[in-house]
Write a structure and sequence with these properties.
This protein starts with a strand and ends with a strand. The longest helix is centred in the first third of the chain and has 15 residues, at 88-102. By secondary structure, it is an alpha/beta fold. The chain contains ten helices and 14 strands.
Length: 357
Amino acid sequence: MIKATTRYYEFEFQRPAVTSRNILVRKAVYFLILYDTDNPKAVGIGECSLFPGLSMDDVDGFEKKLSKIVEQINIGKFNFKTSLHEWPSLSFALETALKDLTNSGSKILYPSAFTRGEDSISINGLIWIGDKGELTGQIKNKLKEGFTCLKLKIGTIDFDDEYEILSHIRNTYSRDDLEIRVDANGAFSPKEAPDILNLLADLEIHSIEQPIMPSQIEEMAVICEKSPIPVALDEELIGKYPVENKLQLLRIIKPQYIVLKPGILGGIKACEEWIKLAEKMNIGWWITSSLETNIGLNAIAQWTYNLNHSIYHGLSTGALFKNNIDSPIALKGEKLYYFPYKKWDLSLFTSKSKGYA
C-alpha cells in the first residue's frame, strides 16, 4: 500500500536570483515523498516546483491542499488519476514521485543513454538580470565556458543599453557561431513591441519569449503574425486546461515556439499535450526548468532527453543553490550530464531536521 509524507526545506541561491518579478535569496521547497509499505526502502520523491509570483498555485491554501492529498493517500482514498490542474506544482510532484517509486526509488525515472552517462543534453547559457556591467561579465563567463546559445532577459534596464550589449555580442560572434535568445517576460506594451522586434531582427536574434504580458491574446496574435523574428509563448501557457483550451490558444495566436515548464504547467503529461498540439501545427518548442532543486531537475532532464528533440533547452544546474541536493547531474560546458558513478545524497529525506540546510 502506498503511503505519503512531505518534507519542507529552504535552499539558498548562490547569488540573489533577480527575476522580472522579485529578488530571490532563498527558495522554499516542498517535497512529496511516496513509499510502499510492502517495500519501504523504495522511496519516490517529487518536488513541488513553486515559482514565487508566477506559479498559479503559489497561493494561500497550498499547504492545506498538500496535507489533504497526503492524508487521502495514507488512508487509501486518493485516486492517483485525479486531476490537479489547479495545483500544477502538486501535479508535477505527484507524477514524478510516483514514477520514481515505480522505478524502485532509483531516481532513474526515464532510463536512457543519458542516465547511463553515454550522452548529454545541450542547454542555453542563462544570463541573469543585472546592470550593464553585470550582464557583460556574465556573458563573458558563459562564452568562456563554451556556451554557443545564450538567453538574455531584456526589458529590465534601459533598452538602449541592452541593445548595445546585444549588438556587441553579434558583432563579435556570427549567427552560425552563437545563437542568441531573448526573454522579455512581458516587458513591452503591444504598441512599442513592433519597434523593439524590428531592432532585434537586425541582430539575427533566434527568438523572443513573451514580448508582451499574457492574456492579451488578440494583440499577441498580431505580433506573432507580423514579427520579423520568431515569438515564443511562455507565461501565456499558464493555467490553460483542458486540452481544448490549449488548442484554442495556439490556433488564435499561432506562435512560432512555445516554452514548456513542467513544474509550472502541471507536469510531464500536461507538457506532452502541448507538444502533440504544437507539432501538429508546426510550432517549435523547448523545455525549461523553473528554479528546481536537483530532484525536480533530475526528472525534467531525464524526460527531456527521451523526447529526442535536438534544440537547446533551458535546464538549470546543481550550481543554482549553495545547499542543493548532491546528485549525479552536472554541467560540462554547455552539456548537461548524468554521471552514474556519482551518488545521490538523500539524507535530507531521512533526517528529522527541517528548515534551513
